[in-house]
Amino acid sequence: xxxxxxxxxxxxxDDPSDQRSLSLDETSSTEESPDETxxxxxxxxxxxxxxxQRFATHDAAYEFYSEFAKRCGFSIRRHRTEGxxxxxxxxxxxxxxxHRAGNTPLKTSNDGKPQRNRKSSRCGCQAYLRISKVTDLxxxxxxxxxxxxxxxxxxxxxxxxxxxxxxxxxxxxxxSRILMFAKTGISVQQMMRLMELEKCVEPGYLPFTxxxxxxxxxxxxxxxxxxxxxxxxxxxxxxxEKDSNFKFDxxxxxxxxxxxxTHRLTAFDMPLGIWVxxxxxxxxxxxxxxxxxxxNLRSLSWALKAFLGFMDGKAPQTILTDQNMCLKEAIAIExxxxxxxxxIWMIVAKFPSWFNAVxxxxxxxxxxxxxxxxxxxxxxxxxxxxKDMVNSFGLHTNRHIxxxxxxxxxxxxxYLRSHFFAGMTTTGHSKAINAFIQRFLSAQTRLAxxxxxxxxxxxFKDQAAExxxxxxxxxxxxxxxxxxxxxxxxSILTPFAFSKLQEQLVLAxxxxxxxxxxxxxxxxxxxxEGGRKVYWVPQEGIISCSCHQFEFSGILCxxxxxxxxxxxxFQIPERYLPLRWRRFCTSPAKLLHSSPTDQTxxxxxxxxxxxxxxxxxxxxxxRLDIATEQVSILLSRIREQPVTSQGVRDISxxxxxx
Length: 658
Description:
Its main location: nucleus. It is built from 24 helices and 14 strands. The chain is an alpha+beta fold and about 650 residues long. The protein folds into four domains: about 55-100 and about 120-160, no CATH class; about 170-245, no CATH class; about 255-455, no CATH class; about 485-580, no CATH class. A five-stranded antiparallel sheet has the order 1-5-4-3-2, covered by helices on one side. A hairpin with a 4-residue loop joins strand 6 and strand 7. Mean pLDDT is about 75; it is low at about 1-45, about 220-230, about 250-255, about 585-595 and about 645-658.
């Protein structure tokens, strides 16, 4: 209900001994005489408060009024009291008021700067319930001596009132379920959906919200980090005893178990670095992760050394990171031959906070221009275009624009195309990586649980990758051009890599090539100017293009493919079918001549061969019959061979670096 005048307090069912307009801010300690208290005869409905209503305790009165408020569409809070327990007559009177009672004063600033004033729900509502203690008629009890049920605001509907903080509660049973879910690493949103299913309630009808769950999990994060570190190391050692392929490292002053360093394990307020890459089937692969106490040069250098140790000293060709000067310095020290670059999706993720307010309605227009410049091939075109962009959008004094331009050689493609990135700069790849990372970032409890969740996430990813690999191999390759180069590539490359090469082969048919004194000029058949310079030495099987696509992705470009086709080349030169994109990442010859230290690599190759065997055998009944017969013979021969303990330890289905 709404009063006609929000500023006027309307009192109903009030005690006749208090015939005055009661202000909730008054400090009067006038106490009614029990003899003067008249029980209300206007209602006999115990669901509605009335004058003279009796309660054994003030808490019982509060619970009754709270239930009444919930049915009506508001909540209540405890307000003023009169008297004090243990002093004189003790507590003699209590006021319970509408949750929107009172007013929140505006914050003032001492230095004259404007302050952010959060919107308050308080609007001076005068609805209240007053109870007074009576002691001279026997045992002490509490009676209702004042009740106002007029509100100067709209009351909420039943499906809205439950969202008020007073009615959102998490039972002890639900708390236990939430903590159990947190250990599995599922998101808060997933927890809510599971509990709705368990309780058979409609979505959004739990007695608590996602925010309440997040607050609960936050309350369990105040951990003793030193004890956690001891438990964590003990756990890692136990896992190592059971699984020789499990690897971990640590320092006394640095807690690490197992790199994108933009993430932070908020449960422990610790920086989390994650190493990820891409396998030959175009899927993200997890190499390891590291938890750091501090994000400084010393700890990052240690993390890189540990990573190189797990990788048998093999540094990556290229490493993409977030903008972290300590990390850049550490990579220069520990991986001097590795190309360091900034990950574009980590930069773009900051654009809304950097430029949205500055550019307003022109933000999307600016972002489109940024992407156009980012994808250019010529450094000269990029730098000229950047200046035009700064002028067009008036960003001459913007510090983020200045910083981006200063670091352009580390993120803009015109400066990076001659380095191998395996497609890691694409938005799709970033989404796949982030989806994987979130599986264990949501582990909310102890460090040991985090380690368990990393293992679960990696195992899940390994299984998913194996399934996707099998699905790719089972796909029938569809040839689109009929060119011998296409069928040749299809027999060697993984379906993922072949699809990328096939795109270029299809486009190559739309290009014309012109032989020049120093190579070939290749351009689209509709263009009269421009084009790409292609250099080809048939005798040596060497071809290169000014677009640098092969150097950047490991896939030959349409320009080079057009020149090969024009030169009657029916197979793609061996060196342009890189091992990292082949169905078998290691050649059979290397398998036969590898040393015992290559055991893990040989096992991985065998797994790939088995996957291909199944895929090829499934294409016809005749193939399947041959495969079944020959594999049976092979298994019999293998089982005749002795089993060594070393071999058993090495042959593990899961190889994890944590």
